[in-house]
Amino acid sequence: MTSTLALIRGSFSPPHIGHLLMGISILQFGLADRVWYVPSLRHAHGKHIAPYDLRCQLVGRMAAYIRNTSIKLSQLEQWYARAHPEDTGPIYTIDLLRWYRDIRTGSPRLRLVVGADCVLDGEAGKWKGWEEIVRDFDPIIVGRQGVDFPRPVHIPPLPGSSTEVRRLLAAKEDICDVGDDIAHLVPASIRDGVLAYRKAFLGLEASS
């Protein structure tokens, strides 16, 4: 029987509890046999995100905390960039999926994990190759609070968003107060790292 690999692609700037629960839910709901968290090498629209190595470090720690070898960090975008050194622009999802499928003969069936807010009728048309993604990579749709999706989603809305975590990181100066504020949104396994590098996530300075 062919195994199925689900790819959760995103900026993870920073990772949050919803990301952790998403990986677990995919396995528990039988949507895939394995899950890879795939941090974006660079933002598709040129917006600030924390350094790639920092985000990978935190995502890797979060995945390890789950203690399930079927869920892990993947630096797939970095592999893609090394294979395409001439391509310095955005890494489009469809190009990444095609490339990985084509270089891995006999590889598992790939499924892309996407938020419901990203694939509403008005948004789906903004994706390069969306029809091909639907046809060949069977998206796993995750619900989003406040988004009225026209058909059933595979995973109900989960708590947390990177935007909300960044808002809380910026709201107070005292590190103890900030830690308390984000405790319900950031897994304990990476909370210290998110706090230590909060200026990097807020674009106030580069991390070392």
Largest sheet properties? 5 strands, parallel
Helix/strand order: EHEHEHHEHHEHHHH
For this structure, what is the CATH homologous superfamily? HUPs
Q: In what range is the share of β-strand residues?
A: 5-15%
Q: Runs with pLDDT <50, length 5+?
A: none
How big is the Rg? Answer: 17 Å
Mean residue pLDDT? 91
CATH class type: Alpha Beta
What is the global morphology?
Answer: globular
How many domains is the backbone divided into? 1
Structural class: alpha/beta
Separation, N- and C-terminal Cα atoms:
45 Å
Order of strands in the sheet with most strands: 3-2-1-4-5
The total beta strand count reads 5
Named CATH topology? Rossmann fold
Helical stretch count? 10
Q: Percent range for helical residues?
A: 40-55%
Task: Give the name of the CATH architecture.
Answer: 3-Layer(aba) Sandwich
Structural overview:
The protein has 208 residues and is an alpha/beta fold. It has one domain (4-158): HUPs (Rossmann fold). The protein is 43% helix and 12% strand. It has helices at 17-28, 52-66, 76-83, 93-103, 121-124, 130-137, 162-171, 175-182, 188-196, 198-202; strands at 4-10, 34-39, 71-73, 109-115, 140-142. A five-stranded parallel sheet has the order 3-2-1-4-5, with helices on both faces. Helix 1 links the parallel strand 1 (4-10) and strand 2 (34-39). Helix 2 (52-66) runs antiparallel to helix 9 and helix 7 (162-171) runs antiparallel to helix 8 (175-182). The protein is globular, with a radius of gyration of 17 Å. It starts with a strand and ends in a 6-residue tail after the last helix. The mean pLDDT is 91.
